């Protein structure tokens, strides 16, 4: 059976699939720009007759505190987990010791566990140290459970730095710290970008920890969005505007730095 | 004179060794905090959850008296949990199957040297940057029986009930549930595949780019059709990637919570319920902590069945 796809067919297929993939975004955008009286089930796909930003205003006033919470959460959590990941990755790639590979595998397992299996003790623990229902508590949580993935990414990244560079620095009399500061860190910019984008996206989008560890005042935006869509009073043009606002930060990062996002995606799944 | 040289060399050696010892300590200091945290927060907490799952803590006040396997026995006789296991099985099979087929298909399509290849790739990949919550909120409307895609499907005279359908296809009585494919699950699968196809697409595209063109060329010279080139040369070479995709998707699927919670909830007769949702509701809404812990342990074991061999195989390949 000879299948030679004709160019026309190829493009037609690619464009059809693209439209299919974009249709949810189309619905979000179109619905969020409609005034309330145009929002009906029958005209879901229709263009708005006039562009109306009132649903954004309403969604923003509902979500603003939570958007701020998400920022307070995601920035420190991303920086801390990237730093720790770089430190671990450096040791596990350039200062291997007996058993370090086994330790690494033991660490990696933490990346795959269903977080439900640590949630009850985690909440008890956060209550004990009085970080339950607080953003610092959520930061701690994301830093700890982000360690396996950030370590994996940096370890694989550093594996590409030739060992001869480390040896040369050692002969020049540089020790562990100097090599990290003067050789590894300057070569890590891309690594930090990839890891930071990955962590930013994941922590921003995360829901399970957010919904169980925080209440009203410290809730990140995804929990607030879920509450917004679950309530009967809120019209769905506002829900769509809310979805757009909640998705925007990660979408912008993806559009601007998509290349690095894909590198992170590949780095997180293929080992060494 | 000679003694002095030897002394000097010995001194230098001592300094060097001292430095090496110092470096070792630094290495330990770098990784110790992370490993201690993971030891407590991952392994310690799993142990604690296991302990809770064997206790009588099924109210707001902790009660750690030993209950044996009572919580597990309750679960496996429970209609809702049996439904969850059935739903998870079908969701996982369909989800993995479609993610692989659509990711591979789109990767091959993009690999045909399309113009605007970057644009197409970005379009298929962007849902990966969204939250499952956003996906759930939007697809809840897109697959609403009275609007969304059904507006178009009306032209063809089909109006699926999507996630509101309570039919179990090919059902037969099994335990206290009807075992078979819950039709409502398909709506969840569609939303999840839309979101995760980008992952397998990116993996397969990287894989395709890694296959030297000469290999395909050689097969063509031997007279293989383009179809045969893919079936006999390319896809077998992509097998390791397929294995990775299956494992990663399986673990996402087995612990899925946010998509279901945001999009459908448990559904009538629990047709769209999954262990993740059950665990959340029974623990944090109804205070059945021991039951919730038992569900979590079952989820952990299911994931571990996939992940542990995968991690060990990776270790061996590297070591």
TrEMBL record, chain A:
Residues 67-257 form the ABC transmembrane type-1 domain. Keywords: Membrane, Transmembrane, Transmembrane helix, Transport. It is a multi-pass membrane protein. GO terms for biological process: transmembrane transport. It is found in: Cell membrane; Membrane. Pfam families: BPD_transp_1 (PF00528). SUPFAM superfamilies: MetI-like. GO terms for cellular component: plasma membrane. PANTHER family: ABC TRANSPORTER PERMEASE PROTEIN (PTHR43879), GLUCOSE IMPORT SYSTEM PERMEASE PROTEIN GLCU (PTHR43879:SF1). This is Sugar ABC transporter permease. It comes from Marinococcus halophilus.
UniProtKB/TrEMBL annotation, chain B:
Pfam families: BPD_transp_1 (PF00528). Belongs to the binding-protein-dependent transport system permease family. InterPro entries: ABC_transporter_permease, MetI-like, MetI-like_sf. It is found in: Cell membrane. It comes from Marinococcus halophilus. This is Sugar ABC transporter permease. PANTHER family: ABC TRANSPORTER PERMEASE PROTEIN (PTHR30193:SF42). Residues 85-312 form the ABC transmembrane type-1 domain. The chain crosses the membrane at residues 25-46, 89-110, 122-142, 179-208, 229-254, 288-313. One of its GO terms (biological process) is transmembrane transport. It comes from the Bacteria. It is a multi-pass membrane protein.
